[in-house]
Amino acid sequence: MAQFDVYPNPSKLQRADIPCMVDIQSDLLSALPTRLMVPLASRKHMLAALPRALCPPVQWEGHSLVALPHMAAAFRVKDLGTSQGNLRSKASELVGALDAVISGV
Question: What is the pTM of this model?
């Protein structure tokens, strides 16, 4: 597992609205049995005026998604399955969005 890897949402009930999640936990904490994940929600289910700094847009496999760092949660590694790719190119935006949740900046 690596920071910024993308995984399918393990919740079948939420997968239509939140198809996948991105791992934002530092690789320095890889010994932990959990990873901190940020949901990537379908843009069509979001308000048009989402604050971009808080909810950065993400293109993934042809879908327009929105990161929801205010809904970050820990998931057990064994429940995540196989990585579908990586969003390291969006690292700055994702970390900045999480910082906005924590510090309000």
Answer: 0.90
